[in-house]
Design brief:
Chain lengths: ~110, ~120
Amino acid sequence: DQQVKQNSPSLSVQEGRISILNCDYTNSMFDYFLWYKKYPAEGPTFLISISSIKDKNEDGRFTVFLNKSAKHLSLHIVPSQPGDSAVYFCAASERGGADGLTFGKGTHLIIQP
Amino acid sequence: KAGVTQTPRYLIKTRGQQVTLSCSPISGHRSVSWYQQTPGQGLQFLFEYFSETQRNKGNFPGRFSGRQFSNSRSEMNVSTLELGDSALYLCASSLRPGGPVDTQYFGPGTRLTVL
């Protein structure tokens, strides 16, 4: 039973446009959500996070939106750059920290020139 | 500051064998978590160690085990390997359990192939 779902295995976006990656979750006990970026042959790197008490968090080109009633979050990247091409993982935690994160299966973002 | 290191980076084993993977956390980090990444299941939590004690365990069979040493280095062991154990095994370290999530850092992983 996937508690964190990323329904789009891949997404192709033109350079300079907005990339929107989506994530749905089923466990209402999750109270902290994160996005990780992963390049081939490297471990995931933390990108941005959001606590369940907020509905938006912004860091430079990256913004995460949380809709608790819909159990949905999204990552917006504006503008998209070639270096953004990577696999993006959505993750969630029940304890507001890094214990035993539950990850989605990832979305492969491809930025086209 | 050196990052999380994992050895070996690549490993090929045959069914029925056992394997031990090693993880050295960032200096000063005392919590180590292990994850399995496969194309079909994504990233799945295996277990977490802190102060040589297993704090949390994911939903994996008993063939998967781990331990942590007094210097915070951690090993995970998989016995009686099955084809489905082929995956990228990732280790992540953080200062302490339940700490700020952006202080958790992942290593590059060990790619295990079971033939």
